[in-house]
Amino acid sequence: MAAPKKGRRPAGGQGRPGRALALILIAMVALTGGMFWSGHTTPRLGIDLAGGTSITLKATAEPGQESAINETNMNTAVGIIDRRVNGLGVSEAEVQTQGRENIIVNIPRGTNEKQAREQVGTTAQLYFRPVIAVAAATPQPVPSAKPSGTPSTPPTPTASGKPQGGKSATPTATASTQGRALTEALKAPSPTPTGSASPKTSESPKAPATPGASQTPDPGTAALEQKFATLNCLDPKQQASAGKGAKPTESTVACGEDAPGQWSKYLLGPAEVDGKDVDEAKGVFDQQRGMWIVTMDFTSAGSKKFQSITSKLSQQTDPQNRFAIVLDGQVVSAPSVRQTLSASAEISGSFNQQTAQDLGNILSYGALPLAFETQSVDTVTAALGSEQLEAGLIAGAIGLGLVVLYLVVYYRGLSLIALLSLAASALLTYVIMSLLGPAIGFALNLPAVCGAIVAIGITADSFIVYFERVRDEVREGRTLRPAVERAWPRARRTILVSDFVSFLAAAVLFVVTVGKVQGFAFTLGLTTLLDVVVVFLFTKPLMTLLARTKFYGEGHAWSGLDPKRLGAKPPLRRSRRATAAGPVDSPKEA
After folding, report:
1. d(CA 358, CA 348)
2. CB within 8 Å of 566: residues ≥ 6 apart
3. Are 307 and 337 in contact (CB under 8 A)?
4. CA atoms of 418 and 560, how far apart (whole Å)
5. 315 with 199: CB under 8 angstroms?
6. Phi and psi (nearest 5°) for 267?
7. Across residues 126-134, what is the average pLDDT?
8. What is the pLDDT of residue 201?
9. Is 163 exposed, middle or buried (0-12, 13-18, 19+ CB in 10 A)?
10. β-pair partners for 286
11. Under 8 Å CB-to-CB from 564, ≥6 apart: which residues?
């Protein structure tokens, strides 16, 4: 019989527990240092704990279109508003319907709260409309036949973003809408020369007397022309209402701000492209020009529409070679077109990072199917949430105290390992929650606190499983060091199965629920994963090291591993003399 190999580790043994302990301690120090370095030393709190803003929006419809306020459109609006707010990094925001025509938006206090308040009710109806006529802001005769360079026509941005007209003309790169400066520069497939008002084509410019069908106002639009002539875009009420409520298939009038305090009025044709044709929009920094811009990529159908309208406009003269980008009834830019464009466009101007990303966020998630009026904006205090949090923390402290008392009374010295493991798990949970706030917008609410309290029991259960397996091995008569290693494989399987079930339940709950319940599910899943990490990299290695000490290894009465108290059997003694000497001959054979 072959002799047993020397230095063979027991089943499930861990030869160098110090390495595992060093690994988790380094991770804890690194995460804690990262928390202090980021400046976010406390978890972000949800609206129920930190307070915030509650906004009530009421859906409105044009006369004769009251049927548009229905369950389908309301649910669509809720989804768009929720994506807008969460796109700004404001997690734990609650968006839900109330009754038939109201939407309630609860935004927790903190980062981007102001931006979210501004965007929740923005309809974001985006249209690309051909320009028929443009004039100064004050009432005057219709300048529909004005040639290029007429004083009443404001300077026009070209595809390269530069104006056409006199030397004193200022580019509309300073144009803005409601305090946000915008201009439009289209991405041409080839460089576009500037300084010329003629279209970029080998043919002679066509007279504006025969514009394309998309540029011709509807027949019998004397009332519309009269409205255009009398429109005063210096009046704030008329600025806001001029282009509101116009159908995409109809011509309309609108106001646009060319520079701070300098307005123009526009007579616009039917919409050729709308916001649904925009596939993606985002605010980016243009390194070459050193400015923030909003880029827009069109869908395949949108690209065809945009190519068609720019092809028609490039053959016209100013101002009928321009198209207006109309957002919620106001012209944010009206660039001229000198060649056919298709795939993408960009809006540039005096953006900063926030305004560029705000507009990109609005355009990316689409327009609301309904218009909304802000009924009320209320500040929510954290007084009620603080009382509930205090009560929850008291309940958690009582539960933790009972767990500690049970561990000390029943497991005695082993309770030290359990308490150190609980402390490690609590530290990791706190640090990671603090880091997840700025990273993914995680906010701690009352259900999340409940999830953390429930996790105390899950973590303690893992320790108890392992301790009982070790005690079972001691009862079988084994000394502590081999008992610790032999008990680990069996306890490991049980712990993994138990934690897998808890994590699966948390994952399902997170997927099928919304709102605050997701906070409970997220916290439960996070603490379950941390339980596995702590048990494998902290509890087991620490148990292995302590088993080598005299206090635990010799089964002190207060170690929790006293063989007498556990009712251990006599020590198992393995004798290999008989097998080593070979079989003994029977008397008969002798």
Report:
1. 14
2. 471, 474, 475
3. no
4. 12
5. yes
6. -105, 120
7. 86
8. 31
9. buried
10. 291
11. 555
Tokens 């402290």 found at: 397
State the pLDDT confidence band at 279, using cuts at 50, 70 and 90.
confident
% residues pLDDT > 70 (the chain): 71
Question: Is-contact 69 61, C-beta < 8 A?
Answer: yes
pLDDT exceeds 60 at position 574:
no
- Residue 462's closest CA among 485, 483, 491, 487? 491
Which residue, 473, 475, 460, 199, is CA-closest to 339? 199
Q: Residue 335 phi/psi, 5° resolution?
A: -80, 155
DSSP calls for 418-446: HHHHHHHHHHHHHHHHHHHHHHH---B-H
Closest CA to 116 of 66, 182, 54, 48: 54
For 101, the token pair is 């025509």
In the structure encoding, which two tokens stand for residue 589, read together? 């054979």
- Please determine, for residue 403, whether its predicted confidence score (pLDDT) is greater than 70: yes
Show the tokens assigned to 535.
Answer: 């048990």
The band of 57, judged by pLDDT with boundaries at 50, 70 and 90, is confident
Residue 353 vs residue 468, higher pLDDT: 468
End-to-end CA distance of the chain: give it in Å, rounded: 24
Q: Within 13 Å, how many C-alpha atoms sit on residue 225's CB side?
A: 14
Angle at CA 163, nearest 5°, toward 235 and 299? Answer: 85
Cα–Cα distance, 239 to 242 (Å, whole number): 6
Residue with the bigger pLDDT between 145 and 21: it is 21
What does the pLDDT look like over 425-467, one tens digit per residue? 999 999 999 998 778 777 788 888 888 888 888 888 898 899 9
**Would you say 125 and 77 are in contact if contact means Cβ atoms under 8 Å apart?**
no
The average pLDDT across 514-523 equals: 81
| pTM of the predicted model as reported, rounded to 2 decimal places | 0.55
β partners of residue 134: 266
Task: Give percent of the chain above pLDDT 90.
Answer: 13
Coil/strand/helix, residue 64: coil
CB 341 within 8 A of CB 187: yes
- The DSSP code sequence of 94-124 is EEEEETTTEEEEEEESSTTHHHHHHHTT---
Long-range pairs, 278-284, Cβ under 8 A, ≥24: 278/126, 278/302, 278/363, 278/364, 280/364, 281/359, 281/360, 281/363, 281/364, 282/357, 282/360, 282/364, 283/351, 283/353, 283/355, 283/356, 283/357, 283/358, 283/359, 283/360, 283/361, 284/356
Q: Which residue has the tokens 């066509």?
A: 206
11 pLDDT tier (thresholds 50, 70, 90) = very low
Listed residue (46, 54, 43) closest to 108, CA to CA: 46
If phi > 0 it is left, if psi is from -120 to 50 it is alpha, else beta; for residue 324 that is: beta
- Write the pLDDT tens digit of every residue in 195-231: 333 333 333 333 333 333 344 444 446 788 888 888 8
Pair 332, 19: CB distance under 8 Å: no
Q: Tokens 């120090």 — which residue?
A: 29
Q: What pLDDT is recorded for position 348? A: 62
